[in-house]
């Protein structure tokens, strides 16, 4: 009997389980991937995934904070 435990090779993913697509930029607001990248993620090579992961921080400024609710009604004043 072996002490080794079977483990799957999981694919590194930036997913943070906040799956909402920004209506203008068409990027997930949680992980910053495009719909196409999310759909192809499991079929990408490790090199392709690393390239997407490296590009994600540069995408953050593309997502402007949407203002709604109380902040929109009060103009940001409390």
Spell out the key features of this protein.
78 residues
Topology, element by element:
Layout lengths: L34 H6 L5 H14 L9 H6 L4
Can you give a write-up of this model?
- The chain has helices spanning 35-40, 46-59, 69-74.
- By secondary structure, the chain is an all-alpha fold.
- The protein starts with 34 loop residues before the first helix and ends with a helix.
- 8% of the residues are buried.
- The mean pLDDT is 83.
**Unreliable runs:** none
Structural class: mainly alpha
Hey, roughly how much beta strand do the residues contain?
Answer: under 5%
Number of helices: 3
Give the termini distance in whole angstroms. Answer: 65 Å
Described by the principal axes of the CA atoms, the overall outline is elongated
The string of secondary-structure elements, in order, is: HHH
Total strands: 0
The major β-sheet equals:
none
Average predicted local confidence, pLDDT = 83
Percent of residues in helices: 25-40%
**Spatial extent as radius of gyration:** 18 Å
